[in-house]
Design goal:
The complex is a heterodimer. Chain A is α/β, with parallel strands linked by helices. Chain A has helices spanning 6-9, 12-33, 38-43, 51-72, 88-105, 109-117, 121-140, 145-148, 158-162, 166-192, 206-225, 230-236, 239-246, 254-262, 276-281, 292-295, 298-305, 321-332, 344-351, 399-402, and strands at residues 86-87, 152-154, 251-252, 267-272, 288-289, 311-316, 338-341, 359-361, 373-375. The chains are: A alpha/beta, B mainly alpha.
C-alpha cells in the first residue's frame, strides 16, 4: 500500500532518480503554465492575469481529489502521507512577508527556479536573493525561537477542524476553488481586458464547465463512497503488517519494557485496556487506563499521533487478545512505535511477581484475557512489581515482610533485585515521516 | 535557431494546473511527501556556508541540523527534486522555444531596477518561506492538497498581503 518507503527499498541512485523525475514534472508543469514569466505572476495582483490563481488552485484541487480517491479506495495509506504541521501564526506571518516579496520580486521560490532554468536573468537574481533570505533567517531565527515554535497544532486538517468527513471537505474545497475561478475570470475581463461590467461574459465556456463538472462529480463519488474504517484499513495494510503479528514482532517482553523505562532517551507510554477493578488491583506504574473507544475519539487519537518521535507506546491487557485488537485499530490509523506487551499483565506478574500474601496464582499466562492472579486487595501501583526498573524495594512497604520487622528492629530490607530475563529486542524506534515534501 | 521561431503560447491554465495536480499526487502517492523548493534552497545555502565557515554551521542550531559535523546537506531528496525542477523547466522551455537570456520586467522600470527589486524581493521571499516552514509550493500547494489547516491559512495570507501591497508597487509592473 502506498506510499512507499523509498529510502529502504531503493539504492541511492534510484532514490535520487525518483525525486529528480518528480521535480522534472513539477518544473515542466510550472513552465508550461507560464510561471517562468514574472509578468504573468505579477499580473495576478493587478487582476490582469489570473494564471497564478488558476494553475495553483487547480493543482491543489486535482491533487486533493486524487489523494482522497486513492485513500477512499484503499490504495493509499493517508496516515503515512506527510501533512504539513500547523504552526498557525508563524505560518500566517511568513505568508504576509512572502506576499510583499512576491509583489516586489515577482516570483516565489519554485517559479524563480523555472525562470532561471529558461535563462531569465531576473529569475536568477531572485534566486540569489532567496538564498540570502534563507541564510538571514537561519542566522536570526534563534532570536525569536519561541514565536517560531508557537501556536503548534500538529497534524491538523480541514476535516479535523470542520468535523466533516474527508469527502465532504474535498467537495467544499472544490466548490470554493470553482467559485474563485469564476470570480477571477470576471475580474480579469473587467480590470485586465478593460471591458465594462455590462459586457463581461458571465457564463464560462464549455470546456471550463466540463472541467468543473468532472471535479464536482469526482468529489460526489468521494462523499458517497466514504473513507475506509479502521478494520478495513488494517486489512489493506498488507502482508508486512500481518507478518509482524504472526511472527510476534509486535509483542514486547516485559523485560524489554522495563529496560526502556530505564532509558532516559525514550519516553514510554503504557495504555492499560483492562477494566477499572482490575486496574485498581494492580497496574504498571505510570500507566493509564483507557478503552479502545476513548482512544479512537479524534482528540485522543491526535494526541497519540502527535507524540514526540522518541515515544514508544505499549498496550496491555490481562492477556493479549484485547490489546492486539486495539493495536490493529490504532496501527491502521497511523499511530507510530506501537507495541503490545507480550503475554499481557499475566506475563508481567510472572516476570515480576508480587508477594504471596498480596496475590495468588489462579491461572496460566497463556495470552488469553482472563486474570491469572487473584489479588486479595487493591494495590494500584504500590507494589515493587509495578516499578521493576527501580532496583530497591526500600521505598515500598510490603505487608508480608512487615511482620518480620520485630526480629531485626530498625533494619532495612536488603535491596531487591529482580532476576535478569533474557529477551529478544523487538522495539525499533521509527520517526514517522521520512519524506516531508519540499519544506523539510 | 532561426529568428522566425517565435515562442509557443503557454498552455491553458487549467490544463497546466491539472498537470501540476497529477505530478503532486504522484509525489504524495509514491514518496509520501509533496513538492517544494525552499527546503532545497535552504540546503544549498547551508551547503555553501559549510564550505566557507563549517565551524559557524556547527554552532547555529538551524544550520547544524542540515550540515553540522559530518552531515551532508547535499545528499537529500529536496536537492534531487530541485535539480529535477530546473531540468524540467529547461526542457519545457526548450521545446516551447522560451529559453532565452533576457530580463522580464514591467514596461516602466529599467533592467537594473528590476534586478535590484528581484534581489530584494527574493530575500524577503526566502526569509518568509523559512518563517512559514515552506514556500508557495511546499506549503500552499502540497499542504493545501492534503487539506492542512495551516497551509490554507498560509495561502490566504500570501494572497491577502500581496493584494494589500500591490497598489504601492504598481509602477514596477504597469
Amino acid at each position: 500500500m502506498a506510499p512507499y518507503d523509498l529510502a529502504a527499498s531503493l539504492g541511492p541512485v534510484a532514490y535520487a532518480i525518483v525525486f529528480g523525475a518528480i521535480g522534472f514534472g513539477f518544473g515542466a508543469a510550472l513552465e508550461m503554465g507560464g510561471f517562468g514569466d514574472t509578468r504573468k505572476l505579477a499580473g495576478q495582483f493587478y487582476f490582469k492575469d489570473m494564471t497564478v490563481l488558476k494553475v495553483m488552485f487547480t493543482g491543489i484541487v486535482v491533487a486533493a481529489v486524487l489523494v482522497a480517491l486513492a485513500t477512499s479506495f484503499g490504495l493509499l495509506d493517508m496516515s503515512r502521507v506527510f501533512v504539513n504541521p500547523t504552526y498557525l501564526w508563524p505560518g500566517i506571518v511568513g505568508g504576509l512577508i512572502m506576499g510583499v516579496g512576491f509583489v516586489i520580486g515577482g516570483f516565489c521560490p519554485g517559479t524563480s527556479l523555472v525562470a532561471a532554468s529558461t535563462l531569465k536573468i531576473d529569475g536568477m537574481i531572485f534566486l540569489v536573493g532567496a538564498l540570502l533570505g534563507v541564510w538571514l533567517f537561519g542566522e536570526t531565527v534563534g532570536s525569536f525561537q519561541s514565536f517560531w515554535l508557537s501556536s503548534y497544532m500538529g497534524r491538523f486538517t480541514l476535516p479535523d477542524w470542520l468535523g466533516l468527513p474527508m469527502g465532504v471537505s474535498v467537495l467544499l474545497v472544490v466548490v470554493m476553488a470553482l467559485a474563485l475561478f469564476w470570480a477571477g475570470d470576471l475580474a480579469q475581463q473587467h480590470f485586465g481586458e478593460k471591458k465594462p461590467w455590462a459586457e463581461v461574459k458571465r457564463v464560462p465556456g464549455r470546456g471550463a464547465l466540463a472541467f468543473a463538472g468532472t471535479l464536482v462529480a469526482a468529489s460526489l463519488v468521494l462523499v458517497a463512497h466514504g473513507q475506509p474504517t479502521p478494520e478495513e484499513k488494517f486489512t489493506l495494510l498488507g502482508a508486512e503488517v500481518r507478518r509482524s503479528v504472526e511472527e510476534r514482532g509486535i509483542f514486547v517482553d516485559p523485560a524489554e519494557v522495563v529496560a526502556l523505562r530505564r532509558d532516559i532517551g525514550v519516553k514510554v507510554v503504557i495504555l492499560d485496556l483492562r477494566g477499572e477493578p482490575e486496574f485498581n488491583l494492580f497496574h504498571i506504574g505510570g500507566s493509564r487506563r483507557v478503552t479502545l473507544e476513548e482512544l479512537e475519539t479524534p482528540a485522543r487519537l491526535k494526541s497519540l499521533l502527535d507524540q514526540p518521535p522518541s515515544t514508544v507506546t505499549f498496550l496491555v491487557g490481562n492477556g493479549e487478545v484485547s490489546a492486539l485488537n486495539a493495536w490493529k485499530h490504532l496501527i491502521a490509523q497511523g499511530v507510530p512505535n506501537l507495541y503490545v506487551i507480550d503475554g499481557g499483565m499475566n506475563r508481567w506478574l510472572e516476570r515480576y511477581p508480587v508477594d504471596a500474601c498480596v496475590a495468588e496464582r489462579v491461572g496460566a499466562s497463556d495470552g488469553r484475557d482472563g486474570q491469572a492472579w487473584r489479588f486479595l486487595y487493591a494495590t494500584g501501583s504500590t507494589q515493587p512489581a509495578a516499578w521493576p526498573e527501580i532496583d530497591t524495594s526500600r521505598s515500598f512497604r510490603s505487608p508480608c515482610v512487615a511482620k518480620e520487622v520485630d526480629v531485626h528492629p530498625g533494619a532495612h530490607h536488603a535491596a531487591r533485585s529482580w532476576p535478569v530475563h533474557a529477551y529478544t529486542k523487538r522495539v525499533k524506534l521509527k520517526s514517522k515521516a521520512a519524506v516531508k515534501g519540499g519544506c523539510g | 535557431m532561426s529568428a522566425n521561431q517565435q515562442p509557443r503560447p503557454y498552455v491553458n491554465p487549467y490544463v497546466a494546473g491539472t498537470l501540476l495536480g497529477v505530478v503532486l499526487f504522484a509525489s504524495l502517492f509514491v514518496t509520501g511527501g509533496g513538492l517544494g523548493a525552499s527546503a532545497a534552497m535552504s540546503r544549498v545555502q547551508t551547503g555553501v556556508l559549510d564550505l566557507f565557515a563549517p565551524g559557524h554551521v556547527d554552532r547555529v542550531a538551524y544550520f547544524a541540523e542540515m550540515a553540522g559535523g559530518t552531515r551532508n546537506p547535499w545528499a537529500h531528496y529536496a536537492i534531487y527534486m530541485l535539480v529535477g525542477t530546473i531540468l524540467g523547466g529547461f526542457a519545457s522551455g526548450l521545446v516551447n522555444r522560451r529559453v532565452k537570456l533576457e530580463t522580464r520586467k514591467g514596461p516602466r522600470i529599467s533592467v537594473q531596477a528590476r534586478w535590484g527589486f528581484a534581489l530584494l524581493g527574493g530575500a524577503i521571499m526566502g526569509y518568509g518561506a523559512r518563517m512559514a516552514r515552506g514556500c508557495t509550493s511546499g506549503q500552499a500547494l502540497s499542504g493545501g492538497a492534503v487539506l492542512s489547516v495551516g497551509s490554507w491559512a498560509f495561502a490566504m495570507a500570501i494572497f491577502a498581503s500581496a493584494y494589500a501591497v500591490a497598489w504601492f508597487f504598481r509602477r514596477l509592473w504597469n
